[in-house]
Design a protein that fits this description.
Residues 143-170 form a coiled coil. Keywords: Coiled coil. By secondary structure, this protein is mostly helical. The chain contains nine helices and no strands. Helix 3 runs antiparallel to helix 6 and helix 3 (60-97) packs parallel to helix 8. The two termini are 47 Å apart. It has one domain (2-103, 113-232). The protein has helices at residues 2-26, 37-54, 60-97, 105-108, 122-129, 138-169, 176-190, 194-220, 225-232.
């Protein structure tokens, strides 16, 4: 029964975290919509290069169908890049919690203790431990939860990659170079929104990790009350 209760709690937390990602995946950004003039022009250029490469004449009707199918490929590529962006964040959470984050040399020189101490980010602890009465196994709880999120993201990524392969193989004239052009377009626009947000979160994780590593080192020297106040000042 205890194991069942733990699983139920983790499943609830899993839904809470993944909902943010699912919501992001369900949103089609403006720069990928049919109403976006720049996107439509870009797609026509890509489609034109595909037709020329395939040396085939297409009717207007086929061109419209190809445009729709190509746009579907772009949407899948966008979702893949969203997943990969969140993977970067969650792997950073994992590295922090398992003591694998790289500490700058100028900070490492000040540490006499181990620099591989598990330090879980505040975001993870707040989510996982908020409903926990017993937090004696805090590290294990956070580790299982974070691993679960990483595995879920990897599973979703594989599904999108399979979908991409099917669509790409069924699209005559589609090549790796075409895909790179599509990804470049997405990346240029993605960098102005989600990527910057995630990059900022990752920077904060690194910053907090370094500060808390110094804090752990300081308290190993058993400072008195005055010294503790001075440290936080």
């Amino acid at each position: 029964m205890r194991q069942l209760s733990t699983n139920a709690t983790h499943e609830k937390d899993h839904i809470k975290i993944m909902k943010e990602i699912r919501d992001q995946l369900e949103i089609v950004p403006n720069y990928l919509t049919k109403q976006n003039i720049s996107f439509n022009e870009f797609m026509r250029q890509v489609l034109s290069s595909i037709i020329k490469a395939a040396s085939a004449e297409k009717s207007n009707n086929n061109n419209n169908n190809n445009m729709n199918e190509l746009r579907k490929i772009v949407i899948v590529l966008y979702k893949i890049m969203i997943i990969q962006t969140y993977q970067y964040l969650w792997k950073t959470y994992f590295k922090s919690g398992t003591g694998q984050l790289i500490i700058p040399s100028e900070i490492k020189q000040k540490l006499s203790c181990s620099t591989t101490s598990p330090i879980w980010p505040k975001e993870i602890k707040a989510i996982v431990l908020s409903s926990k009465k017993d937090t004696t196994n805090e590290n294990e709880i956070c580790l299982k939860f974070t691993n679960g999120q990483i595995n879920a993201l990897q599973h979703q990524l594989k599904q999108y990659q399979q979908e991409l392969n099917i669509k790409a193989n069924n699209f005559q004239g589609y090549t790796i170079s075409i895909q790179e052009r599509l990804m470049t377009y997405i990346e240029q626009n993605l960098n102005s929104s989600l990527s910057k947000k995630i990059e900022h979160q990752v920077e904060l994780i690194h910053y907090d990790y370094h500060i808390r590593a110094l804090e752990l080192e300081y308290f190993q020297h058993k400072p008195n009350e005055y010294q503790v106040c001075f440290f936080y000042f």
